[in-house]
Amino acid sequence: MAIYSMLPGQLGRRQVDSSIDGGTQLRSMWHPFMLTICPSLMFGLVLLGAVGGLEAFVRLSDSHTGFAVPSTTLQNLATYLPIAFIIFVGWVWQAYELEVKKLVPWASMCSGPTAPSDSIQLDYIGSNPLVAITTAIRKRHYGILICTLGTAAVAVCSIVAASIWDLEPAPRVLPVTLQRTGTYDGASLDSPADVAQSLTRYLARTVLQLSSPSWMTDDYVISPFNLSDATPGMVLSGTTQGYNTSLSCQAADVSLSNNGTNVTITYAGVSQMIPCDVFVDEPGNWSFTANPYLYTGKVFNWTVGSNTPAILLATQLLPPNNCASAVAVGCIPSYTVMDVQVAVDAGTAAFNDTPRAVGTASSVTFPGGEYLLQIIDNNNGVTGSPWDAQAQVFSNHDDPFAYIPWTTSPPNFREVGNYSPWFHLLRHILLLEPKQLMDANTIARGSQQIFSDIWRNVIQPRNVTSDSLQGTAAVADTRLISRVGSIRAIQVCLCVLAVIAIFVFAWRPHTCLPRDPSSLASIALILSESEDLARRLEGSSSATTEALGNHLRGAKYQLVVNASGDSEIAVLSDETDFVAPKASLQSGDEEARCRFDWTPPILYPVARVTLAVLVLVIIAVLELLVQLSSRHTGLVNYDGQWAQRYAWSYAGPVVLFLVGLGIEVFDAGVRAIHPFVLLHRAPHPGNRLTYDPLHQSVTTLPFHALRHRQPMVLVSTLAVLLLLVAKIAVAGLFTIGQVTRVTNVQVNLNTTFAWNASALADTMATNITAPFLNPDIPGYDSGNDDYELPPLELIVNAGLETPNWTTPDIAVGALAADSAFQFLPTKSNLTARLPVLYSDLVNCTAVPYVQRGNASEGTYGIIPQLECVANYGHSPSRFIYEVTLDDTGHAGSVFPIPGRTGIDVAQINCSTIFFLFARNDDINLVSCNYTMTQSTMEAKLAIDSSAAYRVLSVNRASEQHVTPVDEFSQLPLIFSGIPTQDSIVDTAYTRNNSADDAFADGAPWQLFHSGSFDYLFSAITANTSDMNTLLDKNTLITAVQSQWSQYFARLADFYMRVPADKETSVSAALAAPQQRIFIEPKPARILEGLLAAIFVCIVSVSVTLRTAGVLPRPPYSIASRMSLLAGSEMLNLPELGEPGAQRLSTDALEKRLRGTWFKLGWWVGDTEGKGLRYGIDVDGTDHDTAVVLDRYVSVDAQSPQAEVYEMKPNLHERLGRSVSDNIDKMVSP
């Protein structure tokens, strides 16, 4: 084993041959790796690549209206990867900033003689950031300023990157090929029966205030289109054809002649005389009018060249056939087509926006279009029309539209003598008095108005199968959308960092240092070569910062390379003979000089407790938020405002950033003082001095702290690392979700139900029953036109939607408008227990029967075999139902059991009704009882506005307060077929329906005969693909029950709805969809665990680390650290005096110093007059010889300067004697 052979007196600074090439030494100067070209270039490229990636993300999100919602795993990656990347960028930038701040003082000295405040006393690492910025501005250290700007940019990124995307509903617009499903090109208007049926549907919709058919606006009927693979909620847009009409009307010249018996009309040069007695139908109500005049109206065809205008003639008639006055209007329609831009819901065909004309209108014609008004007014007995000739004979007051349930009757009805259908439409729709219709302008304007409405409803499109057009499909689904504002902020910050990285490289501090100067060993290497500075610093180790500054102020300092190629700090001073201050303790202030009280402010007891409590408070608040979010289904309502969204998204990162500043300052304080605490507590081998945690990045600290046995540094660094993980976890802390908030409210009841006998019969007391489903059936005259209900065919076959407060089988009591519901979110609903009224067919069963006649003849009779009708009229043969098969061999009808009341005949009332469906080879006959029930049920209502409710569903299982309507169940007669409009024109329905006279002719079946299919079965079979399924008993029962309940729900809605008490209110559950801000439990729990671990780290360090009496001042500046070494025997160690020692690698230097032990404390110098000194020195206590006598290798084993020394065992005892223990005892309390 080689040992040192030099004596203590020979331990001094080695003289190096001055012939060493200084240029060679300068070329081997040390440069921080982070400030070289390659790392800076790579860092800048990574930042610019991130900027480009974010830009691609924004542009793709914008062009595709976001991205499809990824899996949970990918969502987590998209949440946490951006912030993890920013933290990585922060690590790199921390290394940049650290190197710049570390080298600026050395660079200042390297540039020339520099004042101590700009060099050896300059501190950017340990100073407050605001003070550092002020100092950098004052001293023009631009590198420090741009590094600080970069740190601020990283801080902004670390907050903003926590949320760079959202999941939100977003409409996507996709190009698609649409299929036109219908066109009006070639549509026909010349079929009176089709026009009549369409007109009936239009009038029923108008009176019931139901919505118009799809693909229709106030201006156009539009050719429909659709998409074969459309999805719910999709909005289709395309350009299609819109058709319009206008009715041109002008007054005609009218003159009376022959004492008012003739009317002469002149229009467009064509004249015609018309006798006033053309109105031959004398209404039966003439005797009821006090006015001597009656009013009539008629439509005539007119031929003017190739045109056929309609002439509308209105007369004031003095009975029987004298015209007192007359007016006439000539009208002719025209039609146009143009392109319109349409956007419709693919499922409902409802317009998403008002269709917009995008082309020029052009003329178009339709077969029958030019005389459509005349077709509507046709009075020639069109079969199937509501103004059939036979219907006019028996309908009330010659009104062919009396079957429509007009909510308001036109005034002065009894003054109408005879109106043709068009004039009745003018009266009903526009509510005009007869006198008003004696004005030509009123007739013209009214006709133009209703013709436009009627035309759009009566024209029907033709189906097409191969016509396509290009359009778009907008799908509103949840998409992953980029937060453009956040991403732009990150891009700006990253670009700033990239530019700053270039400037940092360009303006990097240039030094003439052979190695990293951050460690105490490096400081000792430089100080050992700087004799003047070492001499000046002797005795200043225990001085305060202010005293040290005053002491160094008289000179300037410069970093130079000496003749041996080593760096040293030269002192330039006017003093000819500098004498170091005495360091001996004075007896008077000995205790004050020995008790050092400097501690990083963050490590003061108050600061430690405050930081620990703050972390605990955050944990408690986080847990509170988790509980509140769970209990209240979210924390707060989200109103869609960007400020609220951003505030909650970044609240967590901002709080964590602010707390993180305290934790990072705490860690920096621990790193600054902990190595000195360890040296003060006990001697440590020299290799510990080759590493300084204060100048290390957080990523490398744990390894070095473990290796150099610095437990407090390890624990505080662990807190910082946990903080970085917490900054990643906080990115997914707050989310926005939709919930349904249910609150209990009171809502006033607007309507309820009450039995209304007069709606069903004139009076039950007179035993007169009625076909109550339509009071306008001949033979029934209630004298009250308010009780009218659309026939079943209007409801079912015409496809009319249900009234607002009616489900398919139940009439529901209505709620009053409530202003509190005015601003509710869309899709809000209300659940309330409401009064209901409904009718059911019950106890349905198959009925035995006897067939009379041969089915092959197409007509035969059916006699039900029930006890209550077996002896009806003392003859079973009198109770026979005739069945007439249609061309396909099928028939379907409803047959009631009529009740009879008389002196000699017992009353028979089975409360039973028969439903018969027959085929030429089979018969299905079932009977049911009928009931009507009033009760309450829970109804779910959509709230479209404060006054608009819509019944979504009624829960029958919730029924309570059941009250059967016995009056309904006991009715002796339910009319056959549940009549429709055709019941008006069928002569079989013209008989008197009183119990005594109903079967006067001895043929009761005639009363119920209505052809092969009555209108209940017409409705049942309208949408049945295979009628033969109705031969099954259960299928038939289900079908008739459905249609029965459907019809009577509407009857109850019309006839039995009554106002509720004004004071009546109902309790309801208001369910309003609401977007809420949630705190996610999993990230919250992770954060709580991380913060709890940080709390443990802070408490562990705070309890364990003792900093009192360790340092007299902050150890950040070069002078402060060197003063602890000045006068130390460490500077005379051969390990440091070896030529080229400054250029040793850190590993080689560790090996050289491993056998030497050092301690921080008070020392008695061997040199006369030196007295006591506080600092780091070689410890003279014997330690493990295996460690002391260790071999080391110099920087170059082959170098001529490489020597091996022999060290005596008692070397450390001769180097110096520590009196720290004695002084500690002396000043201890």
TrEMBL record:
Coiled coil residues, start to end: none
Ranges annotated as spanning the membrane: 33-57, 77-96, 142-165, 489-507, 602-626, 646-666, 713-736
Superkingdom, taxonomy of origin: Eukaryota
Family annotation (InterPro entries): DUF3433
Alphabetical list of Pfam families matching this protein: DUF3433
UniProt keyword terms in alphabetical order: Membrane, Transmembrane, Transmembrane helix
The protein's name in its UniProt record: Ig-like domain-containing protein
